[in-house]
Design brief:
Elements (H helix, E strand, L loop, with lengths): L3 H9 L3 H18 L5 E6 L6 H13 L8 E7 L3 H12 L7 E4 L12 E6 H4 L16 H10 L3 E7 L8 H10 L3 E6 L9 E3 L2 H6 L6 E4 L13 H22 L8 E6 L7 H16 L8 E5 L2 E3 L13 E5 L11 E6 L7 E2 L1 H4 L19 E6 L7 E2 L2 H4 L2 E8 L8 E7 L10 H12 L2 H4 L8 E6 L2 E2 L11 E2 L2 E6 L2 H18 L6 H19 L3 H13 L4 H18 L6 E8 L4 E5 L2 E3 L9 E2 L2 E3 L4 H14 L4 E6 L10 E4 L5 E4 L3 E5 L4 E6 L3 H4 L2 H16 L4 E9 L2 E5 L14 E2 L3
Parallel strand pairs: 1-6, 1-7, 2-4, 2-5, 3-4, 5-6, 8-15, 8-17, 9-12, 9-13, 10-12, 13-15, 14-16, 32-33
Antiparallel strand pairs: 10-11, 17-24, 17-26, 18-23, 19-22, 20-21, 25-27, 28-31, 29-30, 31-32, 33-34, 34-35
Helix pairs in contact: 2-3, 3-4, 13-16, 13-18, 15-16, 15-17, 15-18
C-alpha cells in the first residue's frame, strides 16, 4: 500500500539515517551476543521512518557472513494484525536474496524454528491462555516445545517486539518472553515506554530532513469565526477540512503533480462509544448532502471492521477517493502516504493526540518535500476539541504540532534583504533535463544503436502451473497447496513498465543518484528519445517493443553502461556540494508563522511585534530570559517602528553566511530584526555567558554583511547584544572583542 517512489526507495536505496541505524543495531547485537544472559535493546524510530525496512536489513546483515559460527532463529511479535503486514513486507524484501524465511506458526511442521527463519506471532492471540499454540496439547505442538526444539539445535533465539509500547510492559507479555528464551530482545517503537542500557535511536529531525515525513502538523489553521454562519461545529470543521483538501489538490496541480489526490481522514470514536453509529451516519449524510461525497460516486471510502467500502488501491496517489472514514483501532500499522488531513470530533472520551493516530498523515506521498509550495509539506488536523482539552502525550508529537498562528501586520512594507539558506546534498543528486542531451550524445558516440538486438520475442515471468489444493489439509498445519512446475508467461504492458522503472531506479542508485520519481522520468524520456532518433520508434505506439528491447538480457547491459557513462558526465558538470548556500535576494518577514506546543502566547501588551499575536518559547534558560528581556526593551522603545523575532533552520527565516573557526562556511540566524522609525534596519543577536565569549565568527560575519549591503544602498546597523547592569550593550565592529569590562562595547540606543 505504498507509492511507487516509496517502493523504489525501499528496494534500491537506504537513506543515510537508516544506514546508520542498521549499522548501530548490528554492532549492538554482536556486543550483546558476547555477554552472558538475556539482553534487551530498544530501537526507537519515529513513525514513517521505515522501521520495518530497517529491521529487515538489520536481520539480513546479522546473519550474513558470520565468522563466529553462531546460528539464529527469530521470533517477530506484533499487536493486532500488524504481524501479517510485517511478514508481507519482509517476504517482499527477501524475495530475491532469500536471506531469511518468513513463517507463521502453522508452517513449522517440524515443531521448531529453522536457521535464519522468522516466526511471526500475534500478541493478542498467544496472550490468550487457552490458545492452542500456548497451552500443552496431545501433539506437543506449542510455543514452549517449539522454543525448546529450536534451542536443542544450538541456535540462539532473537526476539523482535514490534510496536512494543503496546505490549512489552504487560505482565503476561513478560511471561511469554520468558517462554521464548531469547538471547536478545529488540523492542521496536516510535514511543518506547521501556528502559534499557542498550538503545539505538533514529532522530525525528533526521527523518524529517530526508523528506520521508511532513515538516509539521497544523491544527485548525486559518479558521475564521465569520465563516461559521450558524453551522454546527462538526459541519464547520468538516467544511474547513474539505476546503483545505481542495486547496492542496490545486497546489499539487500547480506543480505538475495532478496524479496526487490528497486524502482526508475522518476518525470516529472507538466502537465502545455510544454515539458511534449516530456519528457514522451523521457524517456520511453530511458528506453526501453538502459536498456530494459518497461511496456511490467513489469519493468516499470506509474502513471499519463492520463496513469496508471503496478500499481497493486506496493508498495509491491517484486513487479517486477523497475522504476516508475510519476509527482509532486501524491507526496502528496502517499506511497511506497521500493522507494529509485528519478530522477529529469532540465526542472523543479522551482528547489525547497519539503519534500512532497522527502518524497516518505524517508520511509524504513521494518521500520528498516540495520546495515550490510549503503547504504541501505539512499535515493538517481539524477538530472542534477545545484547546484546553488537547493533551499531546508523546514527546515526539509535542514538538511536531503547530497549535498557534501569527500573521504579519498589514502595515508592513517590504525591506528586501539578502538572505541565504542551505541546499541539502540530496537535491544535488536529482537529475535535471540536461541529462537527456548528455545521454543522447553518449549513446551516439558509443554506437549504442549498432549494439542492440531488436528481435526480442518477450520478457517472461515464471508463475506456478498445475498446482493442487489438498482439501484434506485445509485447516491443518500442513500446506494445502503444492506446485509441480511453473510456466514462463510474458509480462503484461504494466508489468513491463514497472520493471522498466525499477531497472532505471537501480541504475540511478548504482550511479550515486537518488532514484526519485522525477529523476526516473528523466532517464525514461532520454531512452524514449533515443529510440525515436535511432529507430523512428514512438513511445506512444511502441511502448511494449521499447521496454522489451531495453529489459532483455541481450541488451540490458548496453543500456546500463550508457546510463552510467551519462551519469558520470552529468556529475562532472554538476559536482556535489556538502553545503551549498543559496541566496535569496528579496527576503521579507513571513506573512505568517505557525508555532508548536512549546510556545505560549506572550503578554497582551506586546505592541511592536510585526507578527500578531506574538508567541515566545516557554523556557526558563538564561538565554531565553535574555531574549524575553530584549523583547520588553524593544517594545518599550519609542524609536522602534516594529521588530521581528527571527527563527532558524530553513529558508523562511533570515540568515547570513559566516566562516567558523574551522574555516567552514555556515549560516547565522540573527535573533531580531528591528525597523527603526528613521528608516534604519537593525540586525541583533542576543548573547549571555559563554555564548557571548565565542560569538566572534558570527559577529564578524554580521559586520561584513552590514558593510557590504550598505555599500549597495541599504541602511543597516546592528551587532551582538548582551545585558549588563540593567542595560543592553552592543558590539558593532570587526574584529569581535569580548571581556568582562566590555571594552569597545556601547549601550544600545536608537
Amino acid at each position: 500500500m505504498t507509492s511507487l517512489i516509496t517502493e523504489l526507495n525501499t528496494m534500491y536505496k537506504t537513506l543515510k539515517y537508516q544506514e546508520e541505524a542498521v549499522d548501530k543495531l548490528v554492532k549492538q547485537a554482536n556486543e550483546l551476543l558476547e555477554r552472558s544472559g538475556p539482553k534487551t535493546c530498544i530501537f526507537k524510530a519515529p513513525t514513517g521512518s521505515g522501521k520495518t525496512i530497517m529491521m529487515a536489513e538489520f536481520l539480513s546483515r546479522l546473519v550474513e557472513n558470520r565468522k563466529d559460527g553462531k546460528d539464529f532463529s527469530f521470533i517477530w511479535a506484533a499487536p493486532r494484525k500488524l504481524h501479517n503486514q510485517s511478514k508481507e513486507k519482509l517476504e517482499n524484501y527477501y524475495k530475491d536474496t532469500r536471506t531469511l524465511q518468513c513463517s507463521n506458526i502453522e508452517d513449522l511442521v517440524d515443531k521448531k524454528i529453522g536457521e535464519n527463519e522468522i516466526l511471526f506471532l500475534n500478541w493478542e492471540s498467544i496472550n490468550k491462555k487457552d490458545n492452542v499454540f500456548v497451552r500443552e496439547n496431545e501433539n506437543d505442538f506449542n510455543l514452549t516445545s517449539i522454543v525448546e526444539n529450536t534451542l536443542e539445535d544450538s541456535r540462539e533465539i532473537i526476539l523482535v517486539i514490534d510496536e512494543s509500547h503496546h505490549t512489552a510492559s504487560a505482565e503476561n507479555t513478560r511471561g511469554l518472553v520468558e517462554i521464548m528464551k531469547p538471547k536478545i530482545t529488540i523492542e521496536v517503537s516510535a514511543t518506547p515506554h521501556m528502559t534499557s542500557d542498550y538503545r539505538v535511536v533514529v532522530e525525528f529531525e533526521d527523518v524529517k530532513a530526508e523528506g520521508m515525513i511532513k515538516k509539521e502538523v497544523a491544527i485548525n489553521p486559518e479558521l475564521k469565526e465569520e465563516n461559521l454562519e450558524g453551522k454546527g461545529s462538526d459541519e464547520f470543521v468538516l467544511e474547513q477540512a474539505i476546503a483545505k483538501r481542495e486547496e492542496l489538490k490545486k497546489h499539487f496541480k500547480a506543480i505538475g503533480k495532478e496524479d496526487i489526490n490528497p486524502l482526508l481522514l475522518i476518525q470516529l470514536p472507538d466502537r465502545s462509544s455510544m454515539d458511534f453509529e449516530d456519528k457514522k451516519e451523521e457524517i456520511e449524510d453530511l458528506l453526501n448532502k453538502e459536498f456530494n461525497i459518497s461511496t456511490d460516486n467513489g469519493r468516499l471510502a470506509i474502513y471499519l471492521s463492520e463496513d469496508k467500502r471503496n478500499l481497493e488501491n486506496i493508498s495509491k496517489n491517484c486513487n479517486e477517493a477523497e475522504v476516508l472514514i475510519f476509527k482509532q483501532a486501524i491507526a496502528l500499522g496502517w499506511d497511506c502516504p497521500r493522507a494529509y488531513i485528519l478530522v477529529l470530533f469532540r465526542e472523543w472520551h479522551s482528547a489525547n493526540f497519539s503519534i500512532q493516530t497522527v502518524g497516518r498523515i505524517l508520511r509524504m506521498p513521494e518521500t520528498q518535500h516540495y520546495s515550490e509550495i510549503e503547504e504541501l509539506n505539512k499535515g493538517y488536523v481539524y477538530t472542534n476539541i477545545a484547546n484546553n482539552k488537547i493533551h499531546i502525550e508523546e514527546e515526539i508529537a509535542k514538538d511536531y504540532f503547530t497549535l498557534y498562528t501569527a500573521e504579519r501586520d498589514k502595515t508592513y512594507k517590504d525591506i528586501d534583504l539578502i538572505s541565504c539558506h542551505t541546499k541539502r546534498q540530496r537535491e544535488t543528486t536529482r537529475l535535471n533535463p540536461v541529462f537527456i542531451n548528455i545521454f543522447l550524445d553518449i549513446s551516439k558516440g558509443s554506437k549504442l544503436k549498432d549494439k542492440l538486438k531488436q528481435d526480442i520475442a518477450k520478457i517472461t515471468d515464471h508463475i506456478p502451473l498445475n498446482g493442487v489444493v489438498h482439501l484434506e489439509r485445509v485447516g491443518t498445519i500442513e500446506d494445502p497447496v503444492e506446485v509441480y512446475k511453473d510456466l514462463a508467461l510474458a509480462k503484461t504492458l504494466k508489468e513491463l513498465e514497472n520493471a522498466f522503472k525499477y531497472f532505471i531506479a537501480d541504475a540511478l542508485h548504482s550511479g550515486g543518484m537518488f532514484p526519485e520519481q522525477r529523476s526516473v522520468g528523466r532517464v525514461c524520456t532520454a531512452i524514449y528519445q533515443f529510440f525515436l532518433d535511432a529507430f523512428n520508434m514512438h513511445y506512444e505506439e511502441k511502448q511494449r517493443e521499447i521496454t522489451t528491447i531495453v529489459l532483455s538480457k541481450e541488451n540490458n547491459q548496453h543500456f546500463r553502461d550508457a546510463i552510467n557513462k551519462a551519469l558520470k558526465e552529468y556529475q562532472a558538470r554538476h559536482p556535489k556540494k556538502e553545503n551549498e548556500l543559496i541566496v535569496d535576494k528579496n527576503w521579507n518577514v513571513p506573512k505568517k508563522i505557525e508555532y508548536n506546543a512549546n510556545y505560549g502566547e506572550q503578554k497582551p501588551d506586546v505592541r511592536r511585534s510585526i507578527l500578531k499575536p506574538y508567541y515566545s518559547v516557554s523556557s526558563k534558560s538564561r538565554q531565553y530570559q535574555t531574549e524575553k528581556d530584549f523583547v520588553d526593551f524593544l517594545d518599550n522603545h519609542t524609536s522602534v517602528e516594529w521588530w521581528f523575532k527571527n527563527g532558524e533552520g530553513h529558508g523562511t527565516f533570515f540568515a547570513i553566511p559566516y566562516t567558523d573557526t574551522d574555516k567552514v562556511e555556515k549560516l547565522f540566524y540573527v535573533d531580531f530584526i528591528v525597523k527603526v522609525k528613521d528608516g534604519r534596519i537593525g540586525l541583533f543577536d542576543t548573547k549571555s555567558g559563554i555564548t557571548a565569549e565565542i560569538a566572534g565568527p558570527k559577529s564578524d560575519g554580521l559586520q561584513k554583511y552590514i558593510k557590504e549591503e550598505n555599500k549597495k544602498g541599504k541602511n543597516l546597523f546592528g551587532g551582538i547584544v548582551i545585558p549588563k547592569s540593567g542595560s543592553f550593550w552592543t558590539f558593532d565592529k570587526a574584529p569581535y572583542k569580548y571581556d568582562k569590562s566590555l571594552t569597545g562595547w556601547e549601550i544600545l540606543e536608537f
